[in-house]
Amino acid sequence: MSVVKVSEAATALPRAWSSRVLGRVGTAAVKVLRMDELPVEEERHAEPEALLVLDGTLELAVNGEAVTVGPGEMYVVAAGTAHAVRPGSSGTLVIVEADGRTPMVVTAEAGRTPEGRGGRR
Questions:
Q1: Which SS3 state, helix, strand or coil, does residue 107 take?
Q2: pLDDT tens track for 49-81
Q3: What is the distance between the alpha carbons of residues 109 and 74, in angstroms, rounded to a whole number?
Q4: Does the pLDDT at position 28 exceed 50?
Q5: How far apart are the first and last CA of the chain?
Q6: In whole angstroms, what is the distance from residue 48 CA to residue 97 CA?
Q7: Cα(57)–Cα(110) distance, rounded to whole angstroms?
Q8: 4 dihedral zone (left: phi>0; alpha: psi -120 to 50; beta)
Q9: Alpha carbon 110 to chain centroid distance?
Q10: Measuring CA to CA, which residue among 3, 26, 9 is closest to residue 94?
Q11: What is residue 99's predicted lDDT score, i.e. its pLDDT?
């Protein structure tokens, strides 16, 4: 696979909130989308999903609580958790979501392996 220009892929999308799969890691899809300030209705997924804001801000309601995710930040939505996009979200968002064939393991500790040591696996 070649280098993917994520921001260019987001700009080329036909409309906001329509995603494009950039690649796959195991059974997880890595998607990009463009946010446009408008809200998105509440949803739940059977699998967890990671939301990584490249630029802009993602405004979420997670189980009714307000969560703001800024540029360079990531939020992991646990499986089965109610979440919606609040008005005001704009920029480029990368979503990593499992397709349900195998469990997706996500940890919130940056730079730590499951064994508790720093570094890359």
A1: coil
A2: 999 999 999 999 999 999 999 999 999 999 999
A3: 11
A4: yes
A5: 20
A6: 7
A7: 20
A8: beta
A9: 16
A10: 9
A11: 76
Q: Which of 104, 98, 69 lies closest to 85, judged by CA?
A: 69
User: HSE on the CB side for 60, CA within 13 Å?
Assistant: 20
Q: Is 70 in a helix, a strand, or coil?
A: coil
Cα distance between residue 81 and residue 109, in whole Å: 20
Backbone angles phi, psi at 7, to 5 degrees: -60, -40
Question: Which pair of tokens denotes residue 75?
Answer: 């939020």
pLDDT of 114 above 70: no
The answer to whether residues 33 and 23 touch, using CB atoms and an 8 Å cutoff, is no
3-class secondary structure for the chain? CCCCCHHHHHHCCCCCCCCEEEEEECCEEEEEEEEECCCEEEECCCCCEEEEEEEEEEEEEECCEEEEECCCCEEEECCCCCEEECCCCEEEEEEEEECCCCCCCCCCCCCECCCCCECCC
Residues in the chain: 121
Task: Read off the pTM.
Answer: 0.79
- Going by C-alpha positions, the residue among 23, 35, 82, 79 that lies closest to residue 59 is 35
Closest residue by Cα to residue 23 from 77, 71, 94? 94
Instruction: List the alpha helices (DSSP H) in the chain.
Output: 6-11
